Amino acid sequence: MERTLVLIKPDGVRRGLVGEVLRRLECQELKLIGLKLLKLSPELAAAHYAVHRGKPFYGELVAFITSGPVVAAAVAGEDAVARVRRLVGDTRAAAPGSIRGDFATSVTANVVHASDSPVSAARELGLFFQPEELLAQE
């Protein structure tokens, strides 16, 4: 079993898409093992997007993710990282039927973030959840 992080970004929360995103994850037989609603501090946002520091869009990412509440979901399942990435869709050209393809309004306001590798997933899960906040995988 693999674990990964999904963030429902402020645009997804504002638009009432939390339930739809979680439904789509669960319909793919991915198990929710942690869930919380929070407002990211600039420091947490900077840590989360550290890999993009120095890129032209970095400031926009941090400003957007801190603009409202987000839902952090820890998800587990076989090949969870790749399966969630397919379900979420590409950042710039998401296919219809994917979460971003169906709901994104821009490259930044694209409803969700999903970890891009098992290494990123472990790092990101550690930013948003303490080990005791995650359920054991069954």
What do these coordinates show?
The protein is of the alpha+beta class. The chain has one domain (2-133): 2-Layer Sandwich (Alpha-Beta Plaits). 40% of the residues lie in helices and 19% in strands. The chain contains seven helices and four strands. The protein has helices at 10-14, 18-27, 42-48, 58-65, 80-88, 99-103, 118-128; strands spanning 2-8, 31-38, 70-77, 112-114. Strands 2-3-1-4 form a four-stranded antiparallel β-sheet. It is globular and about 35 Å long.
What is the number of E strands?
4
CATH superfamily: Nucleoside diphosphate kinase-like domain
Could you name the ranges where pLDDT drops below 50 across 5 or more consecutive residues?
Answer: none
Q: What topology, given as strand order, has the largest sheet? A: 2-3-1-4
Spell the H/E element sequence. EHHEHHEHHEH
Number of H/I helices: 7
CATH secondary-structure class: Alpha Beta
As a percent range, the share of strand residues is 15-25%
Q: What is the molecular shape?
A: globular
Class by alpha and beta content: alpha+beta
Helix content: 25-40%
- State the CATH topology: Alpha-Beta Plaits
CATH architecture descriptor: 2-Layer Sandwich
Multimeric organization: single chain
C-alpha-based Rg, rounded: 14 Å
Distance between the termini: 9 Å
Q: What's the overall average pLDDT, rounded?
A: 95
Summarize the main sheet.
4 strands, antiparallel
